[in-house]
Structures are given as structure tokens and as C-alpha cells.
Design goal:
The chain has three helices and 26 strands. 15% of the residues lie in helices and 48% in strands. It is of the alpha+beta class. The longest helix has 30 residues. Strands 2-9-8-4-6 form a five-stranded mixed sheet.
């Protein structure tokens, strides 16, 4: 019994001791304020402000998501940096985002089309009637591109527009460039020289030197000339020159395709590069065909013709040459079920009439208007190399009984 009484007294003492400890601990806790780990005393106020802003934004987000009255308005969605230097870094542009709604507009980054495009949010929450800014940063890097366009993406709580796409674009300055194509269309008659020009330019170097030109054919000759300051300004170029190329044919071909390689250099830095410039053209035909029966000015459509038909088809042909063409002949006709004859039009020099009809021994055949299956070819009697041909389309069938 005495042992049990002693045990009870010890238990009572323990409970009283624990109670005293809890009371003392509560008093101490009320007096001592624990500091946030890793925040120095000098920045405690800043820390508290950030914490308060985070908590406030959480409440505002909850309210905005609940009511859903935010409305996105973007005065600008695409920004063009223009021409930028190769390797340019930290190309930045700030887009303004306005909230035309009745509740807070929430913004959240959701990625981009390129790792080098970064969207920085000034504030993730925009109050009604207010605006915020989003900074888009693009790094061109060392890889040379001609043009670029990248996107930064944002999520919103606008029920009518839950995503925003902000675009930045531009053009990397070209160390060397060619403006346009050297193409001459129907500039001169077949057999005559043909000339075309392009501008060679640099948007990086202040001067340009043409070291060498190599043409794909000895029939091509080149020369250079100055380029106007207005043209350089339009190209946003620092230097440039005009390249002229002349093609002198040795036959009567109607077109040509050649290439001129140019070796350009910057005299100051010694940097250089070869460029390949296509050079092509089409000569005016020395022989032209005309007439109301020609189908779209590209051929003669005879349609469906029965054997024994007396129908004829006519069109005009005109020759252009230094010496007047006074007489021509039919050099070829396909298919053989057709014949053709020519007649001089006395009132117009160098002009003739061609008449097509069925041959007496015509057989059924279909012809599709090419150099093998359907055409009429005529040539100058004085110069047989001066020729021209026109497609024929149609089908000859047996006489319908």
C-alpha cells in the first residue's frame, strides 16, 4: 500500500511538471519569433513583401477563376526586329497586355517555338482596366539565317481566349547576297545577244570586291557596274555592285539556261565567298502564228473529223528577220493524214497564210499537239534554219454511215 501511494505521488508530480513546461513553452513561443531560413535580417522586409504578394496573387487567382470576367486585349501581337547583325544577342521587345474585363486577368508562361525565345512576365495578374508587359527575348546565335519568326506562348483565364501567341520576326544581315534573278524574257529575236543584270550586295561589309567570275558557257560574258545609293538603301546594304551578263547564241534555240559563279570578298577583313547566279532567258520567236481559229493562241484544235470531210482550217504566220522573208515552205506535217499548203499575203511583207486539210488517203488517227503526233512546221525558203511550228489537236475517224 505504501508503495502504491508513493507511485501516485510521483505521477502527480510528473503531471504538474509537464503542465508547468507546457505553460512556460507557450509563453516563450509567444515571445520568440522564428526567422525564415536563409533570409538575412537586412532583407526581411523584402521577403515579407514578396510573401505577401504571393499570397495576395493566390487569392486574386482564386477569385478570377471563380468569376471568369477577364478579357484579353493585345495592341500588338507581332514585332519585327528588322535586319539584325549575325550573332546578335538579347534582342528584346516588350508586348503590352491589357485587361478589358471585370475581373483579374491571369497570365502563365506555357512555352515557345524555340529555346532561344523567352517570355518574361512583369506581373502574372493584371487588374481590370490595367495593363501589364511581357518581355520576349530572342538570341540569333552564331548560325546565319535568312529570316526568322518565333513565338512565345501564354495561358490566360479569359474564357474567350485561353492562349496568347506573341511573335517576333526579323532578318539576319547577309554578308553576301544577290537581289533578283538574271532572267531575260523575249528581250531580243532568236539568234541575237541577250543581256540581264542583278545586284550583288553586302549588308555587313562596307566595301565589296569582285575577285573572279566563272560562266558555265563561253557564250556568256560578264561585266560590272555601280549600283545607286537608292538601291542600296532599299536593300539596307552597306556596299554593292551590278553584275551584267550577256548570252550570245550560236544557233537558233528559243531559250537558254546558264550559270555565272562570282567570287566576292571584303578587302578589309579578307572574308570571301563564292555565289552561284542562274542566268536564263527566252528569245522572241522569229516566227509567230495568229488567227481566230487558233485555240488559246497555243495551237489549232481540229476537233472530231470524219474521213472524206472537205473542211479546211487556216491561220496566219509572220516571220521576223533582218532580211525580209519572201517565200516559205511546209517543212513537216503530222499526222500524215493531214496536208498543209502556204500562200503569200502580198499586202503584209513577211506574212503568209497556212491552210490545213485532210489528205486524200487519210486514215483514222488521234493527235495530241506535240512535235511527234500533231504539228505543222514551216520554214523560210531563203534560210531553212529559220523555222517555226504550231501544235495540232484532234481526231480523224471513219465516216459515220
Amino acid at each position: 500500500m505504501f508503495a502504491l501511494a508513493g507511485f501516485n505521488r510521483n505521477l502527480v508530480a510528473l503531471v504538474i511538471g509537464l503542465g508547468s513546461f507546457l505553460v512556460i513553452g507557450t509563453v516563450i513561443a509567444a515571445v520568440v519569433q522564428y526567422k525564415p531560413y536563409g533570409v538575412p535580417d537586412a532583407r526581411r522586409d523584402e521577403y515579407e513583401q514578396i510573401l505577401d504578394r504571393i499570397n495576395t496573387n493566390k487569392l486574386r487567382k482564386a477569385e478570377a477563376l471563380k468569376h471568369g470576367g477577364a478579357r484579353v486585349h493585345l495592341p500588338e501581337e507581332v514585332h519585327d526586329f528588322g535586319i539584325v547583325d549575325p550573332g546578335a544577342i538579347s534582342l528584346e521587345h516588350e508586348f503590352v497586355i491589357e485587361n478589358h474585363g471585370t475581373t483579374d486577368l491571369l497570365l502563365e508562361r506555357s512555352g515557345s517555338s524555340c529555346k532561344c525565345t523567352v517570355a518574361e512576365l512583369e506581373e502574372p495578374v493584371i487588374a481590370p482596366g490595367s495593363s501589364g508587359k511581357v518581355k520576349v527575348i530572342w538570341n540569333a546565335g552564331s548560325e546565319l539565317l535568312e529570316e526568322f519568326e518565333q513565338e512565345a506562348w501564354l495561358k490566360t483565364n479569359d474564357p474567350n481566349r485561353d492562349a496568347i501567341i506573341l511573335k517576333v520576326s526579323g532578318k539576319i544581315a547577309a554578308p553576301w547576297g544577290v537581289d533578283g534573278l538574271m532572267y531575260a524574257k523575249e528581250q531580243s529575236l532568236r539568234g541575237d545577244p541577250m543581256t540581264a543584270s542583278v545586284t550583288l550586295y553586302s549588308q555587313v561589309y562596307d566595301s565589296m570586291l569582285l575577285v573572279e567570275t566563272v560562266a558555265s558557257s563561253p557564250r556568256v560574258t560578264t561585266s560590272t557596274g555601280p549600283v545607286s545609293s537608292d538601291d542600296l538603301e532599299l536593300l539596307r546594304a552597306k556596299s554593292g555592285m551590278r553584275l551584267h551578263a550577256t548570252y550570245t547564241p550560236s544557233d537558233t534555240r528559243s531559250s537558254f539556261e546558264e550559270t555565272v559563279k562570282v567570287h566576292l570578298a571584303d578587302p578589309e577583313s579578307g572574308e570571301s565567298k563564292w555565289l552561284e547566279v542562274p542566268f536564263s532567258g527566252r528569245f522572241k520567236s522569229s516566227v509567230t502564228f495568229f488567227g481566230p481559229e487558233l485555240w488559246k493562241n497555243s495551237g489549232l484544235d481540229l476537233g472530231l473529223v470524219e474521213i472524206g470531210s472537205e473542211k479546211t482550217w487556216s491561220f496566219g504566220v509572220r516571220f521576223r528577220a533582218e532580211d525580209e522573208v519572201k517565200e516559205i515552205f511546209v517543212k513537216g506535217v503530222e499526222p500524215s493524214s493531214l496536208t498543209a499548203s502556204v500562200q503569200t499575203i502580198q499586202s503584209v511583207p513577211g506574212t503568209f497564210r497556212v491552210t490545213v486539210r485532210l489528205a486524200d488517203d487519210a486514215e483514222p488517227v488521234r493527235f495530241v499537239g506535240d512535235s511527234k503526233h500533231g504539228y505543222v512546221e514551216v520554214a523560210s525558203q531563203e534560210d531553212p534554219d529559220l523555222v517555226g511550228w504550231i501544235p495540232l489537236f484532234g481526231q480523224i475517224i471513219d465516216e459515220i454511215q
